[in-house]
């Protein structure tokens, strides 16, 4: 029996096993689910061992555990690949918005429904099963393989960079493939070449020691809510240009070749507006919407808090006003340099009569950009083209996966995203699902990947 026949023969069992993993409520954001996190990690270790990867274990971290496994039987003359993924999931609330319970997976319409089905338990299982098919039919793997599955991706991986640094020797590899990722559409593959970095901030503006009567004190002392609005207006123009001096200093400008590559990817502005419900697109002048989404840095206000928010009117002059701000960064910006630039601007534009404090919040990350001609990306592109029957798009994404930057920094290897989810699968929303044909296709891609790398 060949590996592809093995996959077809065992597909029903594989789907049942994916159901069993989805049924474990491994919600990393909820401390009450800590026992479930360990149960999920143990389950993945057992599944790796069943696939023939005997050296598999749970590794404690300062937070949720990591699953690490390795098979090094191909020898030192063959490449070593590391497969990354995560077994933790987003909180399922609101429960009443689910058609079926989030941790009681069901098969409907050729899809498996449940929290974590697409992000990222389906991807983790596809990688394991693709490699199992080669091990079971050939008795060995053509390359050395390591696995690193974390339990904190959905909360920003706070403990994982330290774990990677501690385990750097064990994790040494020639290529890294991430089972957490997206394909463009069910019939069109893609290779994601860049992710944006992240900077999270909170701007706090303070005035009087407590809320004051606006009739007695309005006009006599400064209003922090108004001061905050004035300050935010001096961080970004109405046209969408960030006006913080130094914000763009480290940005690598888009060359003509990169802009042409982005322009070749299909884009429908009317469809984008229909998807978002926005009346029009806007952003940094001089760039297309796709260029701004994929390859230009941003500064956005995510939340505002001040004064009376209840029904009716309460005529107060608020003591404090707060804004949550995030910046999505591009190569070669760093969170530290951008935070310093914004801090300096905040100090310059703070109105008289109030004080301002800029807090850097946890969860920041540098941007990720794969180098041109990346060898692992080229191999993955060839395999995807074989499986899908068409060449993958070369794309970028405005989101962030902080751990990929850690891999590049600590291990010296740029990862390739080789996941099989799609952005319509309600990844962080009720009624999350994963297409079963994508599940099967992902298994085949990983099996073919091993074969292709083993021929080198």
Describe the secondary structure blueprint for this structure.
Blueprint: H1 3-22, H2 34-50, E1 55-59, E2 66-71, E3 80-86, E4 106-108, E5 111-113, H3 117-138, E6 144-150, H4 160-166, H5 168-171, E7 175-178, E8 190-195, E9 197-206, E10 212-213, H6 214-217, H7 224-232, H8 256-263, H9 269-276, H10 289-295, E11 298-306, E12 316-317, E13 320-329, H11 335-349, E14 355-360, E15 368-369, H12 375-388, E16 393-397, H13 402-411, E17 415-417, E18 433-435, H14 436-454
Parallel strand pairs: 3-6, 3-7, 7-17, 8-16
Antiparallel strand pairs: 1-2, 2-6, 4-5, 5-18, 8-15, 9-13, 9-14, 10-12, 11-13
Verbal overview:
The protein has 14 helices and 18 strands. The chain is α+β, with helices and mostly antiparallel strands. It folds into two domains: 281 residues, Zn peptidases (Aminopeptidase), CATH 3.40.630; 119 residues, Alpha-Beta Plaits, CATH 3.30.70. A hairpin with a 2-residue loop joins strand 4 and strand 5. Helix 3 crosses helix 14. It starts with a helix and ends with a helix.
